[in-house]
């Protein structure tokens, strides 16, 4: 026999649903194996790390067309600048064309670098309790969304995203600051989406959340 974690009634060890309160019971995960030579703190840290579902930066493929456009402008600007410089030796009146091509090239390089730093400055960490998004190129903001406050989650993939192996996860929550959140550039497999969806259900059950969260 074991205690129901929600109502504290005695239920069977193999039960997956409490017959008293109707709560779904998650299967007990095996305890992490002790690390030789490490104390209890290391074991607890390992167990905590095992609860992280995703930790990293969005894939640059999420900005695929923007990156391609910026790279095209850079290459085109460089080629135009070289061509104008060569022609400038024959016709000094092409000075403005040279400056124009150089300005386009500099702007394209700046835009390309901006996309790179925007992606690298965005860090997404999804655990079995919260979704933390750290962003900002010059400043820094960290937004935290608790899983039990999420009311709906959708998996979205365009044809291009499916070919590139990435996906977007759209989250609707009752968070007043950010009621809708789109996680871009995540791995395109269904496994991550299914795990997040399951952890949301577990978090809501742990909070006894049924229906709408105010």
Notes on the protein architecture:
The protein is an alpha+beta fold. The strands form 3 sheets. A 4-stranded antiparallel sheet has the order 3-4-5-6. The protein has a 3-stranded antiparallel sheet with strand order 7-8-9. Strand 4 (123-127) and strand 5 form a beta hairpin. The chain is built from 5 helices and 9 strands. It has a domain at 61-119.
The H-and-E topology, N to C, reads as EEHEHHEEEEHEEH
Rg estimate, integer Å: 26 Å
Q: Uncertain spans, ≥5 residues at pLDDT below 50?
A: 28-33, 46-50
The strand order across the widest sheet is: 3-4-5-6
Mean pLDDT metric? 77
Q: Classify the beta-strand content into a percent band.
A: 15-25%
Tally of individual helices: 5
Would you report the number of β strands?
A: 9
Report how far the terminal alpha carbons are from each other.
36 Å
Compact overview of the structure:
The chain is α+β, with helices and mostly antiparallel strands and 214 residues long. The chain has helices spanning 40-49, 64-88, 95-120, 159-164, 190-206, and strands at residues 2-3, 10-11, 52-56, 123-127, 130-135, 141-146, 150-156, 166-173, 180-187.
Distinctive features:
alpha+beta; 214 residues
Record the SSE blueprint.
Layout: E1 2-3, E2 10-11, H1 40-49, E3 52-56, H2 64-88, H3 95-120, E4 123-127, E5 130-135, E6 141-146, E7 150-156, H4 159-164, E8 166-173, E9 180-187, H5 190-206
Antiparallel strand pairs: 1-2, 3-4, 4-5, 5-6, 7-8, 8-9
Helix pairs in contact: 2-3
């Amino acid at each position: 026999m074991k205690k129901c974690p929600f109502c504290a009634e005695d239920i069977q060890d193999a039960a997956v649903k409490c017959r008293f309160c109707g709560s779904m019971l998650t299967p007990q995960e095996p305890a992490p194996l002790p690390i030789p030579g490490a104390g209890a703190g290391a074991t607890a840290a390992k167990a905590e790390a095992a609860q992280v579902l995703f930790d990293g930066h969005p894939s640059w493929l999420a900005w695929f067309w923007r990156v391609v456009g910026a790279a095209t402008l850079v290459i085109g600007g460089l080629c135009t600048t070289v061509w104008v410089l060569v022609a400038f030796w024959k016709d000094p009146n092409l000075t403005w064309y040279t400056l124009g091509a150089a300005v386009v090239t500099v702007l394209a390089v700046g835009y390309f670098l901006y996309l790179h730093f925007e992606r690298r400055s965005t860090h997404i960490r999804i655990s079995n309790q919260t979704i933390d998004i750290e962003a900002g190129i010059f400043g820094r903001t960290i937004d935290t969304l608790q899983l039990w406050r999420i009311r709906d989650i959708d998996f979205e993939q365009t044809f291009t995203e499916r070919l590139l192996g990435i996906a977007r996860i759209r989250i609707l929550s009752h968070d007043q600051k950010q009621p809708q959140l789109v996680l871009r550039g995540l791995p395109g497999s269904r496994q991550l989406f299914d795990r997040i969806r399951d952890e949301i259900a577990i978090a809501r059950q742990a909070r006894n959340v049924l229906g709408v969260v105010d």
